[in-house]
Amino acid sequence: MQGSKEAELATLMRAAIAGDERAYGDFLRRAACLVRGFARRKIVHGGIDPEDIVQETLLAIHMKRHTWRQDAPVEPWLHAIANHKLIDAFRRRGRRVEIEIGEIAETFAGPETETISDREIGRALETLAPGQRSVVAAVSVDGRSIGETAKRLGMSETAVRVALHRGLAAIAKRIGRN
Amino acid sequence: MDTNELIEVLAADTPPPSARLSTVWWGAAGIAIAIAAAAFFAMLGPRPDIAAAAETPRFLFKFVFTIALAASAFGCARALSRPGEAWRKAVPYLAAAPALIAMAAVAELFLLPPDTWAAKLIGTNSIVCLTFIPLIGIGPLTIFLLVLRHGAPTRPAFAGAVAGVLAGAIAATFYAAQCTDDSPLFVATWYTIAIAGLALVGAAGASRFARW
């Protein structure tokens, strides 16, 4: 079973690199499941939301997919990226503890509702330039295609593609920094 | 943004595929060697008696050491730039060049009378060595740090240190053609210090610059 799962992942990833969007979506969904299981096993004392690790790992996979060797197994690569993002999250968490003690009063004051910005990636999205932010947000809603988004925002498809790619790159950069 | 929305966004982003990492590494090695060569010939140039020196084993051994170090560091740095790669298997090769120079140094101690050891070790070019290996190596190191940034090192500081050793070994290969101190005692001392300096710069640079 393990072997066939690995082979399926590798096949999907190869198709994705060749430009097959649907295969890429499938690959990312499977990767998300694997990483979710991994993150839930590793985060035993709370403090970090496993879903943040899932999202940050998916974004890292996306930005660094050229680092996968097409003849190498996918799972060790995936696992190493997830582990790197988990360690990074623990490190940031450790640094943030001091700040949060000061913010506890505010946290208690407001009702705790999970909004879009509760996720690290959502927070990073809000700091983007308005043009990039609206493109990323538009594509994220109901998986709108590049064409639909271009029509809706009155932009060319190329401009949408460029804004989307730059926006994702900026989010990835911002997550490493804070 | 929930995870499914994120997946939709990522799947919609289809940039032209970026260059393969192995291609990038080989290209970077070529550019780094060209930069080191340009720096070497602009600042130093080979020693005048290089033809005669090329017939002595001590002179030739310097290149055995520096090229072995460069080759092992290249393999190790490449492995360290990919997540999930078995880089631990590449690390032992890094010990080959230091083992070679250590053996050569021991042999040198047997060959030379003890009262000449200090003079051979100190040589006459230690300051030149400590100046020019870093100067020739800093350009190549910059190139390798850019490659690490393009890759995804899960241990950036270590990857950067190995990149520093690689850049230092390339620089030392050129520098060795100029230096007249051929004793393994000199090489083991001053080349090591100069290359270690670049390794430190590489580690510091990559841990800031190649984070992802």
Compact overview of the structure:
The complex is a heterodimer of chains A (178) and B (212). Chain A is an all-alpha fold and 178 residues long. Chain A has helices at residues 2-17, 21-42, 50-63, 74-109, 120-126, 130-140, 146-153, 157-177.
What report would you give on this structure?
The complex is a heterodimer of chains A (178) and B (212). Chain A has two domains: 2-109, Orthogonal Bundle (Rna Polymerase Sigma Factor, Chain: A); 116-177, Winged helix-like DNA-binding domain superfamily/Winged helix DNA-binding domain (Arc Repressor Mutant, subunit A), CATH 1.10.10.10. The termini of chain A are far apart. Chain A has helices at residues 2-17, 21-42, 50-63, 74-109, 120-126, 130-140, 146-153, 157-177. In chain A, helix 2 (21-42) packs across helix 3 (50-63), helix 2 (21-42) packs across helix 4 (74-109) and helix 7 (146-153) packs across helix 8 (157-177). Chain A is mainly alpha-helical. Chain B has nine helices and no strands. With 212 residues, chain B is mainly alpha-helical. In chain B, 46% of the residues are buried. Helix content of chain B is 73%, strand content 0%. Chain B has one domain (29-209). The chains are: A mainly alpha (178), B mainly alpha (212). At the A-B interface, helix 2, helix 3, helix 4, helix 5 and helix 6 of A face helix 1 of B.
